[in-house]
Specification:
This protein is an alpha/beta fold. Helix content is about 35%, strand content about 15%. The protein contains 22 helices and 18 strands. It starts with a helix and ends in a 30-residue tail after the last strand.
């Protein structure tokens, strides 16, 4: 088992030690496999996701059967929708006692069947490395987590077997006819727009994407939460679509007569209206490229679907474009790109506060209640002024992180860790720890609101030990579950239920109590100074620092205007009706 892990270069495992895995974890140090013993398995899984997404190298999640494995459920589903190839090793109750309801027994295959691309249970101890090898290859080929379930008594069986040879399947550049038709449509386009998704990052297709965009003179938008899918310093880069994204990107997309969706399943958050702009072009031809054919046409009607690797497909399209491709209206298009980018950059720089919907006053009240605290946008501008260009950033679910969606861009891929469409709170901190494990010489900075951070805060008890690498973590403190509170202000008449957080909690002091650095700030100047110092401490002195940022309680756009509406009461509700 361990030699098969070595054969595939799996050097890092994340989890919590347990008796069910000790026969192999005992060999990890000799094998060159580092076991990162975390404070909670959920965080361990998020670390594995952060490690693999920023390095492109597979990592492993492993823990004790039963309750240890159940804690992996959320991060595995998160990794599934982040298209992250991970190895999930789930030791199972021993064959001798399975079915008797014994200690730490649970049905681990059914639990993960909707969360992994492939799963297999070892039925005989002589097949353990055959199954392991297949599971690893499936994860790599499908770019998703895959699970091997092993009765714990199999670890200590003695057999003599050859190591598997492995099968590496070559990815394709799409079908001959589909790429030909797509090239013809792009060649005739008067206003082509490219939408880059995670597939561009996963396939290492940044260079091919740039060449294709330059050949067509096509502005390039990024999928929601994939701000690193196209170089941010390129003239054709427009920024992210979707929730709190780039108005410039939305305006360009609205003008498209042909959209090339490259390496994306077109998730709904990348096409939903924002800022009151219905930007998805209704009459444009759509070419969708995805490695998984099942996802083509799933959310939008397509004119041409291409199942293939984003980079290889981009190369095929580039080769087949006509000599006239990209020439129609090129000068006007490029001028418009420049104009809209400049206008949005100026607007973004000028935005200090969130607006209230008609008939609501929460944001105005929030500013009045805390005049000395920063607004979320003031904080984000300060952050971006001191953020190193080469830094890796993580984000989390929540209002303050969502407001920041339009701000970061990156010159290279694998730099931005957003939680993805499963939407787990508590992602920002553990994922940036995993990123630092894989990129020890790169500055990393994680971000989370105080609600989301509370879910993963226990990891501060683990990350200061031994050879854990240093990170910088920014926690926005507005003492509320902001996204839910925003919904309440719009649809529930400020009837706040479960939205208030404990103002007595001191996260910076908690960090200090765990042997880390902690600092609290409330002004722009303090934030810039503290964050710069924390990053310097991370890179020069090996310091992990938590920067606690006091914000006012302004609330940005709700996540799902499309999914919310005011409830209709059909019968009166009174506390006196409660039975004793």
């Amino acid at each position: 088992f361990v030699k098969t892990l070595q054969m595939h270069g799996i050097k890092n495992a994340f989890g919590i030690i347990g008796s069910a895995m000790m026969p192999i974890s005992d060999l990890f140090p000799k094998a060159g496999i580092k076991f990162w013993d975390c404070a909670h398995e959920c965080n361990a899984g998020m670390m594995a996701d952060g490690y693999t997404r920023t390095t492109g190298k597979m990592s492993m999640m492993i823990a004790q059967n039963g309750p240890g494995i159940t804690n992996f459920l959320t991060p595995v589903k998160t990794a599934y929708w982040n298209h992250t190839p991970l190895l999930l090793v789930t030791p199972q109750a021993a064959n001798k006692t399975i079915g008797q309801g014994g200690f730490q027994e649970v049905e681990q295959m059914n639990m993960f069947k909707d969360c992994v691309c492939y799963q297999e249970e070892v039925r005989d101890h002589t097949r353990i490395i055959e199954v392991l090898n297949r599971v690893i290859e499936k994860a790599l080929h499908c770019s998703a987590p895959a699970q091997i379930n092993i009765p714990r008594d199999y670890w200590t069986q003695v057999v003599e077997l050859p190591l598997p040879t492995g099968v590496k399947l070559e990815r394709t550049g799409g079908g001959k006819e589909s790429t030909k038709r797509a090239a013809e449509i792009l060649s005739q386009a008067k206003f082509p727009v490219i939408l880059n998704g995670a597939g561009v990052i996963l396939s290492g297709a940044s260079e091919q994407s740039v060449k294709l965009a330059e050949r067509l003179g096509a502005p390039v938008c990024c999928n929601y939460q994939h701000n690193d899918a196209f170089p941010g310093d390129h003239p054709l880069h427009m920024g992210p679509l979707g929730y709190n994204g780039s108005k410039a990107a939305m305006e360009m997309m609205s003008k498209a007569d042909v959209v090339l969706a490259l390496g994306t399943r077109l998730n709904p958050f990348s096409t939903l209206p924002c800022y009151g702009i219905e930007y998805w072009p209704k009459d444009a031809k759509l070419i969708q490229v995805d490695i998984n054919g099942d996802r083509i046409g799933l959310t939008k009607s397509v004119d041409v679907g291409i199942q293939g690797d984003a980079g290889l497909v981009a190369e095929q399209l580039l080769e087949q474009l006509s000599p006239e491709a990209g020439k129609s209206g090129r000068a006007e298009r490029e001028a418009l790109v420049k104009e809209k980018k400049a206008a949005w950059a100026a607007e973004l720089e000028s935005l200090d506060h969130e607006q209230d919907d008609e008939g609501t006053t929460w944001n105005q009240r929030a500013r009045t209640a805390a005049p000395d605290f920063m607004s979320p946008r003031q904080a984000w501008r300060a952050i971006m002024r001191v953020m190193p260009e080469e830094a890796i950033m993580s984000s989390d679910i929540g209002n303050n992180c969502a407001i920041g969606n339009a701000y970061p861009s990156f010159s290279s891929p694998r730099k931005y860790l957003a939680p993805g469409l499963f939407g787990p709170c508590g992602y920002g901190f553990p994922s940036i720890l995993g990123a630092k494990v894989g990129n020890p010489n790169v500055p990393v900075v994680g971000f989370a609101g105080d609600g989301a951070f509370g879910i993963s805060v226990n990891e501060i008890t683990a990350c200061g030990r031994g050879d854990w690498p240093p990170v910088t973590m920014v926690v926005f403190r507005n003492f509320q579950w902001g996204a839910e509170k925003r919904n309440t202000t719009l649809w529930y008449d400020d009837n706040f239920v479960g939205t208030e957080l404990n103002k007595g909690v001191e996260y910076a002091e908690m960090a200090k109590a765990c042997g880390l650095k902690g600092v609290k700030v409330q002004s722009v100047e303090q934030l810039e100074r503290a964050l710069s110092s924390a990053i310097e401490g991370q890179m020069k002195r090996g310091e992990t620092t938590l920067v606690e940022v006091l914000l006012n309680q302004e609330l940005g756009e709700p996540f799902r205007r499309d999914a919310m509406k005011a409830p209709v009461q059909v019968a009166p509700i009174n506390a006196s009706d409660m039975a004793e």
